[in-house]
Amino acid sequence: MGRNIISIAALFTAVCCFTSSLVAQEAPTAAPVPKPEQTVEQNADSGNKALRMTALYFPNRFLDTVDIFTLELGFGHEVALQPRITNYCKLIGFSGEKYFIGKGFKRQIGGGHTEGWEISAICLTASYRYLDETFGTFDDEFVYDVTNMHIPSPSNNVYKNKIEDFWGVGVFVGCLASVNVQIHPVEMADLITGIFLIDIANDDFKDSALITVE
After folding, report:
1. C-alpha span between 165 and 87 (Å, rounded)
2. Does 52 map to a domain?
3. Which residue has the higher pLDDT, 104 or 28?
4. How far is 134 from 145, CA to CA, in rounded Å?
5. How far apart are CA 79 and CA 67, in angstroms?
6. Residue 57: inside a domain
7. Of 11, 16, 43, 138, whose CB count within 10 A is highest?
């Protein structure tokens, strides 16, 4: 009889312990309560970002507007005739060297010396050209060297590094004196979305947009 009582007590104790462990595992964990200093920091960060968005709104829109176009004037021993509707549709090409000045893609402003050639036949192109003796914000380390006919890609370094716009629409024409004019559709879209603080080109000042596309 005594052994039965002890066995029942032991079984009851084991069941209680097992049930308690299950309850402890299933019990929801209370969400941590933010410390007062954390709340103050979050509010301060939100206030600073709102202030930056307000103060930099018009400077960002001005720069977005300037980004829409390219205008470069050149002088030298160069002949050029190249209409283009993105890099998937270019005709003829250019050859020679020149000194140039103007406003390029992605806030490149200044000038320099360039030499080389390019042949284009709709979606095929071959090119060798380089840029040096630059001033302003133009990159003097630029070299484009793909001399076999190929279909260009936005992943090429010249486009990926924002030296030139793959999607640009315009014309490059001249003989001894030349002009390169382009409109950049993606930058036009960036200006429109920027009105609503959406930065699809990721080129606004830091922490001055509600949404930034990386």
Report:
1. 8
2. no
3. 104
4. 19
5. 27
6. no
7. 138
- For residue 31 the two structure tokens come to 């969400």
Residue 48 is predicted with a pLDDT of 84
User: 162 by DSSP, 3-state: which?
Assistant: coil
Q: Note if the pTM is more than 0.85.
A: no
Please name the helix (run of DSSP H) or strand (run of DSSP E) that holds residue 170, with its range, or none: strand 169-183
Express each pLDDT in 119-147 by its tens digit.
999 999 999 999 999 999 998 888 999 99
The strand pairing partners of 115, in sequence order, are 97, 130
What residue type is assigned to position 136 of the chain?
G
Is residue 116 situated within a structural domain?
Answer: yes
Number of domains in the chain: 1
Residues in a beta bridge with 18: none
Could you identify the residue written with the tokens 């406003």?
103
Q: What is the DSSP string of 66-108?
A: HTTEEEEEEEEEEEEEEEEESTTSEEEEEEEEEEEEEE-SSS-
Residue-number span of the structural domain to which 124 is assigned? 69-183
Name the token pair of 3: 């052994």
Q: What residues contact 60, with CB distance under 8 A and at least 6 apart? A: 194, 199, 204, 205, 208, 209
pLDDT digits (tens, 9 = 90+) for 57-96: 999 999 999 999 999 999 999 999 999 999 999 999 999 9
Domain assignment present for residue 33? The answer is: no
